[in-house]
Structure formats: structure tokens, C-alpha cells
């Protein structure tokens, strides 16, 4: 039975790293994308190769803010690994700024990486791979109107709409769904109780960690009748 292949953007760190470890354990071969985290990506590749010698793990460097580079990523992965069965648009940049404080450079960066790059990769996945599953990582902020991360939040709102638009256009051969986490991993330099403080305001009252996100991914992959859906994996944070 052919091993299935997944491309995970931003796979070297944080949630992307956890997604890679999880899928590798389930016998997936992986295209591990990174931009600047070369050392972490290589270390992850070597670790997975040692654990799962019968699977294929290759790293691909791409600056997702570079349109031309982004347009070549799906074809490069396909040439190296063959059919891509799963595309996970995980990579993103997350920069705080209100509407008043958002300059052109900031909004362009957030939109290019968080929205335009997934758009290009989804388009090329549909045109080149022609079948499979796409999972877009969103954010519980798409349900809110807070402007403290204005450009970031708007880029994720656009991606959520693209998720459902893609599901409508690409079906039945390609299913497209989204996962909208809440606070899962604390930002760099955050206070020790950052996650607990945020979780205390939600219905579930405690951080969920990475496992609910991995379970959401499994649900999307395994449910062949699921498309155009956004799973809020946030302990109910979207309700407040």
C-alpha cells in the first residue's frame, strides 16, 4: 500500500512541528517546509528518518512572502515526492498592531504570508495534484472584531472565506477544511501563566494543549464527507 504524502508549511517549529511528528507516527511521508528555521527543519527530518526508515522525509525552503518562490513549491514537492495527498497551510506570522498603527509593510507581510501564500498553494494543489485534502490553520480571532492584531486577524478571516470557497470549487476530488485554534502554545517571551490566564476566560477554563488540534486534524482526514467546515478548537473562546 502506497504511503501517503503531506506537505506542511512552517513545519520546523511550534504547531507545525507537532503536526509533523503526529503524521509521521501515522505512516505519512512528509515534505517539511521552512523559511528561516533551517537547523530545526533538518533536525526534525533526521529525527523522523531515524524513527521511520521506511517513510520519506524531505525539507523544502521557501519564503512564502515571495510570490514566485511560492508558485514553485507544489511543483517542486511533487517532482521530489510524487503525489501530494494532504496540504496543511500552517505557516503564519502573528504581529500585534491596531488599525491605526498598521503600516503598509505590516499589512502586506501579514496578507502575503497568511493569505496569499495559502491561496497560491491551494490553487497549485488543485491544478497539479487534482485530488486530496487541504487543511488551513485559522484562528479563533476570525469570529471577533478586536483590532489588537488587526492585519493578522483580517488575513485569517480572508483565509477562512477562501477555505469554504475552495471547498465549493474543488469538490468532490479535493476536500478543504479549517482548524481555528485558540491559545495553544504561548508566544515567545510570554509570561509563565499566559495560557492559563487566557483560558480562564473561556467556557472550558483551562488550556487544551496540542492534543485537541491533532484530534481535529485526524477527524478531518478520516471523515470523507467533511468539507467546507471550520473546527473551532479553542475551548469555546469564540463564544466570548
Return the CATH architecture.
3-Layer(aba) Sandwich
Structural class: alpha/beta
Q: Ranges with pLDDT <50 over ≥5 residues?
A: none
Q: Please summarize the sheet with the most strands.
A: 7 strands, parallel
Oligomer: single chain
What's the number of domains? 1
Helix % is 40-55%
Which sequence of strands runs across the widest sheet?
3-2-1-4-5-6-7
Q: Main attributes?
A:
single chain; 240 residues; 7 helices; 7 strands
Question: Would you mind describing this structure in some detail?
Answer:
GO terms for molecular function: oxidoreductase activity. Belongs to the short-chain dehydrogenases/reductases (SDR) family. By secondary structure, the chain is α/β, with parallel strands linked by helices. A 7-stranded parallel beta sheet has the order 3-2-1-4-5-6-7, sandwiched between helices. The radius of gyration is 17 Å and the shape is globular. Helix content is 44%, strand content 15%. The chain starts with a strand and ends in a 7-residue tail after the last strand.
Short structural description:
Helices cover 44% and strands 15% of the residues. It is an alpha/beta fold and 240 residues long.
Give the secondary structure arrangement, pairings included.
Elements: E1 5-8, H1 14-25, E2 29-34, H2 38-51, E3 57-61, H3 67-81, E4 86-89, H4 104-129, E5 132-137, H5 150-170, E6 174-181, H6 194-199, H7 211-222, E7 230-233
Parallel strand pairs: 1-2, 1-4, 2-3, 4-5, 5-6, 6-7
Helix pairs in contact: 3-4, 4-5
Amino acid at each position: 500500500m502506497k504511503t501517503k504524502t503531506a506537505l506542511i508549511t512552517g513545519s520546523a517549529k511550534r504547531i507545525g512541528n507537532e503536526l509533523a511528528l503526529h503524521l509521521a507516527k501515522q505512516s505519512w511521508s512528509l515534505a517539511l517546509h521552512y523559511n528561516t528555521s533551517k537547523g530545526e527543519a533538518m533536525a526534525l527530518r533526521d529525527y523522523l528518518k531515524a524513527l521511520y526508515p521506511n517513510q520519506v522525509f524531505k525539507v523544502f525552503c521557501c519564503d512564502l512572502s515571495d510570490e514566485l518562490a511560492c508558485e514553485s513549491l507544489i511543483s517542486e514537492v511533487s517532482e521530489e515526492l510524487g503525489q501530494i495527498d494532504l496540504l496543511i497551510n500552517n505557516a503564519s506570522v502573528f504581529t500585534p498592531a491596531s488599525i491605526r498603527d498598521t503600516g503598509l509593510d505590516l499589512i502586506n507581510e501579514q496578507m502575503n504570508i497568511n493569505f496569499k501564500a495559502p491561496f497560491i498553494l491551494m490553487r497549485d494543489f488543485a491544478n497539479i495534484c487534482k485530488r486530496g485534502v487541504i487543511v488551513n490553520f485559522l484562528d479563533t480571532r476570525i469570529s471577533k472584531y478586536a483590532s489588537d492584531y488587526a492585519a493578522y486577524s483580517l488575513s485569517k478571516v480572508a483565509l477562512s472565506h477562501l477555505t469554504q470557497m475552495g471547498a465549493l470549487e474543488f469538490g468532490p476530488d479535493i476536500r478543504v477544511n479549517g482548524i481555528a485554534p485558540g491559545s495553544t502554545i504561548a508566544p515567545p517571551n510570554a509570561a509563565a501563566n499566559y495560557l492559563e490566564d487566557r483560558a480562564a476566560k473561556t467556557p472550558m477554563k483551562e488550556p487544551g494543549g496540542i492534543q485537541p488540534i491533532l484530534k481535529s486534524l485526524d477527524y478531518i482526514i478520516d471523515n470523507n464527507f467533511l468539507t467546507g467546515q471550520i473546527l473551532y478548537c479553542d475551548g469555546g473562546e469564540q463564544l466570548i
